[in-house]
């Protein structure tokens, strides 16, 4: 119930203030209970809730969406032409990682490789990445990461190259292309264990010669055998001939086969 104020006023004389007042404080009556909101209304309010827009970024905070076409310089075009010529003329193209090799060791390595007609080529990775995607050697693109050099030669001389690399532990073999075949490091090592072309050609010629000689001997065997039988037959028919003593060992087999 609402608080009520009860006062007793004792008026002894008109216009005098009351001498005593009594105040009563009571509890508030709860006449309204908050009902829970309906689930549909909650969903509607959640869907229609106002979401303020995010503040736009300052101009220049994000990179521009338009790609800038940078024109290649004359040096880059010259290096790309040189790379193209190298890939067309050389049959062995090996990529090696250069781990802080000093100038003296590099000069010594170049001299050792030059004895076997193997050259060292230095091309920037930017030039290689611009040339390889449009060529048939595009699969070599992952090899050009970091400081790399190329060992090139007009003829595949893998054994000589690996022999020289053993003396330079700071040069790590990554992979390469040999005779238009892309090879990994393990593939190059397996290729070096193959015999040389001269050895394979010699084995092939020897095998063909042996087969030819066997064919010739097989073709000449029957005529020679027939000629020996005819000569023996002539000797037997001559007067004074002794067939038992002069008959060859192949005569019984021939007669048995004829029968």
- The beta-strand count equals 7
What proportion strand?
Answer: 5-15%
Q: How do the helices and strands follow one another from N- to C-terminus?
A: EEHHEHEHEHEEHHHH
Give Rg in angstroms. Answer: 53 Å
What low-confidence regions span 5 or more consecutive residues with pLDDT below 50?
1-12, 243-259
Q: Give helix % range.
A: 40-55%
Structural shape: elongated
Distance between the termini: 146 Å
Arithmetic mean pLDDT = 79
Structural class: alpha+beta
Biggest β-sheet description: 5 strands, antiparallel
Question: Strands of the biggest beta sheet: in what spatial order?
Answer: 4-5-3-6-7
What would you say this structure looks like, in words?
This protein is of the alpha+beta class and 259 residues long. 44% of the residues lie in helices and 12% in strands. It is built from nine helices and seven strands. It has helices at 39-47, 74-89, 103-114, 125-131, 158-165, 185-192, 197-237, 243-246, 250-258, and strands at 5-6, 22-23, 92-98, 119-121, 148-153, 171-178, 182-184. A hairpin with a 3-residue loop joins strand 6 and strand 7. It is elongated and about 190 Å long. Mean pLDDT is 79; it is low at 1-12 and 243-259.
